[in-house]
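Hypothesis: this fold can be encoded by more than one sequence.
Test: take the structure tokens below, design a sequence, compare later.
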């Protein structure tokens, strides 16, 4: 085990998303990079786990040895949810094989991203201003469906629902996220994404202050400020922002991760921290990027005061 990992509190582990090697939506980004290269790189740097990416097999009998042979765990995986437009029974049917895989691989959380109500056509290629908004009068019913879904997901698969606030989706802004969580029950947990908060125009620390006790999963994403400003001022699309390099790994952008480290230390958060950045690996080679991120995150924790009740492994 990399000695720097001891900078993390007990029960907190550091993972990396395959997005630094291959994009899940823009399939030309990283098309030439093999799954084995991605996993070997992640393990060699010292990461303890990975999230699902498009190149990872969806059969636990194949996936388990690929990860375990490298000392990696499967952290979680994205589910494209449609509860903004369909009922809970339909969503449970849609999620079944994915939830079974996560359960069989020992994951504790499932990432939920709402893809219903997105701009028609190629939604992530639409201009930022074209995002569809959920009518305020519909939020309570949507939150109720999410609450029911979260309860059933936990009961049937032992998975916590980690709701991913996300650009171009129904919960992008701080007010939209707050309204959703104010109307939902405890089974709806929060995936805190530092990059999506910043790109949506608010400080991620506001989510910690407001909903820290509901955070079940954390994505550590940084933002290149000048590129983000160009995307917003030019009303470009999400995918255009990705291609231009709006997102990057921690330490390479404008985000201060010290408040995040303080939260993790003081709150008793137990779970995964996932380094994640949708980037073009041809422009940002993965190994240097994820190595620098690994060191930046763990150095940030090393420079954050230890809470008096904190235990280390």
């Amino acid at each position: 085990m990399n000695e720097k990992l001891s900078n993390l509190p007990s029960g907190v582990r550091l993972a990396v998303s395959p997005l630094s090697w291959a994009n899940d939506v823009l399939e030309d980004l990283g098309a030439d990079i093999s799954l084995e290269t991605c996993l070997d790189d992640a393990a060699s740097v010292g990461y303890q786990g990975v999230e699902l990416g498009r190149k990872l097999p969806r059969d636990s009998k194949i996936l388990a040895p690929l990860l375990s042979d490298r000392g990696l765990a499967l952290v979680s995986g994205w589910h494209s949810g449609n509860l903004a437009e369909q009922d809970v029974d339909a969503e449970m049917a849609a999620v079944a094989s994915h939830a079974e895989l996560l359960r069989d691989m020992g994951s504790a959380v499932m990432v939920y991203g709402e893809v219903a109500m997105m701009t028609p056509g190629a939604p992530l290629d639409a201009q930022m201003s074209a995002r569809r908004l959920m009518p305020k009068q519909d939020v309570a019913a949507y939150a109720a469906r999410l609450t029911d879904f979260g309860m059933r997901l936990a009961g049937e698969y032992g998975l916590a629902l980690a709701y991913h606030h996300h650009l171009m989706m129904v919960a992008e802004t701080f007010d939209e996220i707050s309204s959703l969580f104010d109307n939902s029950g405890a089974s709806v947990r929060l995936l805190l994404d530092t990059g999506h908060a910043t790109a949506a125009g608010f400080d991620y620390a506001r989510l910690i202050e407001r909903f820290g006790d509901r955070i079940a999963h954390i994505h550590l994403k940084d933002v290149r400020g000048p590129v983000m400003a160009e995307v917003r001022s030019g009303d470009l699309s999400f995918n255009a922002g990705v291609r231009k390099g709006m997102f990057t790994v921690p330490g390479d952008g404008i985000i201060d991760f010290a408040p995040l480290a303080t939260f993790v230390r003081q709150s008793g958060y137990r779970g995964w921290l996932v380094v994640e950045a949708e980037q073009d690996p041809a422009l940002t080679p993965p190994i240097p990027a994820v190595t620098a991120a690994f060191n930046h995150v763990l150095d940030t924790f090393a420079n954050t005061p230890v809470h008096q009740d904190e235990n280390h492994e």
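The chain is about 40% helix and 15% strand. The mean pLDDT is 96.
Hypothesis status: open.
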